[in-house]
Amino acid sequence: MTEETTTPAAEANEQAAPTFAIQRIYLKDLSFETPMGVEAFLNPKQPQIQQDLNIQVNQINEDLSEVVLFLTVTAKIETRTVFLIEVKQAGIFALNGFDKSAYTHLVNTACPQILFPYARETIDGVLNRGGFPPLMLPPINFDAVFIQAVRQQQAASAQSA
User: Fold this and answer.
1) What 3-state class would DSSP assign to 109?
2) pTM of the entire structure?
3) Residue 86: which H helix or E strand, with range?
4) pLDDT tens digit sequence for 63-93
5) Which of 122, 109, 23 is nearest to 72 (CA)?
6) Per the CB 3.0–4.6 Å rule, which of 1, 36, 55, 153 could disulfide with 40?
7) Residue closest to 122 by CA, chosen among 76, 91, 147, 86
8) CA separation, residue 99 to residues 19, 47, 122, 145 (Å)
9) Nearest 10 degrees: CA dihedral of 138, 67, 63, 101?
């Protein structure tokens, strides 16, 4: 029989290890509009789909953060809106032991990546109930979106300096 002993240094390392956990995922807000009404179903033209996304991070306390994925999908035929869906899919995440850079990266990439399938399913379900075919939104590379946003911010900072 062997005994495991831990040294104070080992205990400190275990306590300092970063942790990431999902506490809750929920639908924060949902809006669906069909301004064209029945005319949308009679028009043979295929609508153009536009997808916009944004991320908001709210620090709840030292250990918890709320991450909200804002997803807006607009379908238009020429200049007329066929449908508009706005979804705010949110989650509460426990993030402990990360430095500021790693924390910023996680809440802007990993958390939205977790939330996106829920938002996509909500959009498909609402469209189905609204009489439209499901919309297969393509996957989003949140790492690439984050890197692009950082580069744009750096370029804007360089221009203002």
Assistant:
1) coil
2) 0.83
3) strand 80-96
4) 999 999 999 999 999 999 999 999 999 999 9
5) 122
6) 36
7) 86
8) 12, 45, 33, 21
9) 70
Please state whether 107 falls in left (phi above 0), alpha (psi between -120 and 50) or beta: alpha
Question: How many residues does the structure list for the chain?
Answer: 161
* Consecutive H or E run containing 104: helix 100-108
| Structure tokens given for 113 | 């990546």
Identity of the amino acid at 134: P
Pairwise CA distance, residues 145 & 16, whole Å: 30
Amino acid at 129: R
Sign of CA dihedral 22, 147, 135, 77: positive
97-147, pLDDT tens digit by residue?
999 999 999 999 999 999 999 999 999 999 999 999 988 888 899 999 888
Which residue segments constitute the domains of the chain, with CATH numbers given?
18-151 (3.10.420.10)
Amino acid symbol at 17:
A
